[in-house]
Amino acid sequence: MQEDQQAKADLNDLSRYNLDTNIKGLQYHRNNDQDPYITLRGASDLEEEEAGEREELQVLAEDNMIVSCKTEDEVSMLEVHIYNHHARDFFVHHDLLLPAFPLALQCLDFHPAGVVGGDSSVGAKGNFVAVATMDPTIEIWNLDVVDGLFPNAILGNQDAVKAMGMPAGTGKKKRRLPAPRIPNDAYHVDAVLGLSWNTHARNLLASCSADSTVKLWDLTRAPSGGASDSDSPGGTTALRSFSHHTDKVQSVAWDTSGSSIGAVPNPAVLLSGSYDKTLRVFDTRTPEKGLMANVHEDVECLTWDPWNANRFIASFEDGLVKAYDVRSLPNAPSSSPPSKSSATKQQHVTQALFTLAAHDGACTSVSFSKDVKGCFVTGGTDKLAKVWNATYEEEEDAAGAQGRAPNERPKEIALVASRDLDAGKIFSTSLSPDDPLVLSVGGSAGKLRLWDLSSNAGVRKTFAKRLHELRSARLPTDMTLDADASASADEEAASVLGLSDGDEESDEDEDEEAARGRVEEDDAMRE
């Protein structure tokens, strides 16, 4: 009994724990701001932190915004980059998650009608981008929203997209075929491969798809489904649909030819290129009357020449680049397009104005400078970005001004510069609209590269006269235009942002590596 009472007394006795022996060694602070273990700050500190975040997100007047998309570990995202030529800053400002593998981008400044925003904002100017993916729908995102979760508008039928993933039949058989994708006039039923925004009629967006159709979208149209139905947000239906092609339509472009020389625009004319080896030029108001060109290979890219009215450029899978004048193209058949079987037969190839062997592999991109006449850039699957110079006869401008037909072919097309930018197989090239000598390149390596062409001596020598003719306000103050100046190796390496010096290899090293690779391949074949 006495032992039980002693045990209870011991339980209540805390002296054995020595809880107050080190009380004098405890550290204390006059206020919470001095205590490093208290992370919750006062109102002033929160305001400073928010001000710092706003400063990081602020876009300055001299900043250039570059939009790109990539996929990493099956996660697709849209990245908005900031490039400042004076400060040599190049970083990702913010990114947005995408639901599917991206295929094409198109920037626009027209606020679309959609599930986000009221009717009063439709048509207002802003910074938007249309994204084409492996899904048959087109999403339009607001680039001014940093943490956007949903697009501002969806072009297409989301319910139909969900139904396409369902297999056809009862499911009793082991092999279950997917439901057939039948093209229609309201929306795409396969991956969207290309986009083009009409800069004159700002509410019009053209798209081309693997379902062999070209569609015209009115961005002022309200979506068919309301935002109140979360399970079926719906989408916008197409304004018109064109079925001129019999196979996948790879590229589409509104007529912007001669925009740099003040030519009369043709905002209703649309150009499309397909895997059926045809090019189509037609007025969207009267699509049954159009022009057609038969080509030798699958089309990769289409673009209009800003320095020559009625002229466009097409690049192909075999690396060739060809130029065409719409005034010399034959009329397209007025009847319905031929079937795929008849389209595969050998057709007479339409003669081009000129043909350029640009790349060893497919030429995936062609980009014209809108400031420097004759300067254009190509990119291909051979991992090279090339700068070209096209020179024309002196009397061509005068002939065009008098209404006479200009010279059909340029006097000369010369390669000015060529470089592997460590971007992998190049998918896209674009010259800056604000800086005529800055080139952005995207490729299979998932990296966006910027190449300052002014660091190349050949570029400076070739385009120095034309660059000096530009207004001084359009040129950066630190741009070097001396044709006799030579750039050092360090300057050449620094001209590509995002590419470290360790990744640079000399031509001799590349030749040695290629030679070793050929020898190893020959030895393997002998074995």
From TrEMBL:
Residues 481-527 are annotated as: Disordered. One of its GO terms (cellular component) is nucleus. The keyword Repeat applies. Residues 514-527 have a biased composition (Basic and acidic residues). It comes from the Eukaryota. Keywords: Phosphoprotein, Repeat, WD repeat. GO terms for biological process: rRNA processing. Signal peptide: none annotated. Pfam families: WD40. InterPro entries: PWP1 (IPR044285), WD40/YVTN_repeat-like_dom_sf (IPR015943), WD40_PAC1 (IPR020472), WD40_repeat_CS (IPR019775), WD40_repeat_dom_sf (IPR036322), WD40_rpt (IPR001680). Residues 501-513 have a biased composition (Acidic residues). WD repeats lie at residues 185-219, 356-398. This is WD40 repeat-containing protein. It comes from Ceraceosorus bombacis.
